[in-house]
């Protein structure tokens, strides 16, 4: 067999395109939404959520798709157990009443076939507000370890805690929170 023909067959077998609508399931082992907040002007405090699930549909050729993310609010992790307990309580996330943080896209933005943004609704603490996520590091391909088709990205936004009725200690504890969703999703 001609080497170029063999290379073409192998490339076609292991390549993958997101030209048509493809569905993906969020990989909870590689998806950790995180946040940064100014702590009393002294430092930037960071944390993340350890349990996330969701579904993503991508159709770059038609510049469409959807993103549905569900974050377990109680899975918050800061490295300090007392702080995590306080953040899970009524002063902040109130996870007993509001166990999930949700993002549901309304519209995706593409630059050619590259996802660059998502507009949607964020539901936090029982309040739903529109949020724009800026997407960078978007990449789809075959994971060389699992040999599965995967898409990954980093999505960021800045929100105000007060917009979601989570304004305890503001303005000493910053109202603005930078949110990042580091995500990988496996093609169904």
Folded structure, characterized:
With 188 residues, the protein is mainly beta. The protein has one domain (17-187): Lipid/polyisoprenoid-binding, YceI-like (Lipocalin), CATH 2.40.128. 11% of the residues lie in helices and 56% in strands. The chain is built from 2 helices and 11 strands, in the order αββββββαβββββ. The protein has helices at residues 3-14, 81-88; strands at 22-26, 32-39, 43-49, 52-59, 64-72, 76-77, 100-111, 114-124, 127-142, 149-160, 173-187. An 8-stranded antiparallel barrel has the order 1-4-5-7-8-9-10-11. A hairpin with a 2-residue loop joins strand 8 (114-124) and strand 9. It is globular.
Q: Briefly, what is this?
A:
The protein is mainly beta.
Strand order of the largest sheet: 1-4-5-7-8-9-10-11
Uncertain residue ranges = 3-18
E-strand count: 11
Number of helices: 2
Cα-to-Cα separation, first versus last residue: 33 Å
Within CATH, the superfamily carries the name: Lipid/polyisoprenoid-binding, YceI-like
The CATH class designation is Mainly Beta
Beta-strand portion reads: over 45%
Fill in the CATH topology.
Answer: Lipocalin
Mean pLDDT: 91
**Shape label:** globular
Class by helix and strand content?
A: mainly beta
Number of domains: 1
Helix content range = 10-25%
Tell me the radius of gyration. 19 Å
For the biggest sheet, the summary is: 8 strands, antiparallel, barrel
**What is the H/E order?**
HEEEEEEHEEEEE
The second-level CATH architecture is Beta Barrel
């Amino acid at each position: 067999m001609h080497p170029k023909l063999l290379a073409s067959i192998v490339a076609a077998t292991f390549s993958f395109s997101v030209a048509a609508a493809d569905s993906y399931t969020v990989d909870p082992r590689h998806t950790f939404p995180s946040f940064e907040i100014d702590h009393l002007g002294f430092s930037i405090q960071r944390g993340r959520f350890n349990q996330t699930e969701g579904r993503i549909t991508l159709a770059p050729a038609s510049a469409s798709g959807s993103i549905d993310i569900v974050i377990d609010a109680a899975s918050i992790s800061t490295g300090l157990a007392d702080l995590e307990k306080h953040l899970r309580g009524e002063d902040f996330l109130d996870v007993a009443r509001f166990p999930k943080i949700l993002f549901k896209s309304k519209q995706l933005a593409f630059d050619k076939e590259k996802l660059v943004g998502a507009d949607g609704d964020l539901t936090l603490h029982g309040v739903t507000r529109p949020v724009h996520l800026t997407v960078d590091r978007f990449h789809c391909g075959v994971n060389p370890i699992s040999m599965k088709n995967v898409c990954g990205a980093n999505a960021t936004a800045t929100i105000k805690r007060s917009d979601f009725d989570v304004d305890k200690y503001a303005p000493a504890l910053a109202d603005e929170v930078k949110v990042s969703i580091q995500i990988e999703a496996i093609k169904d």
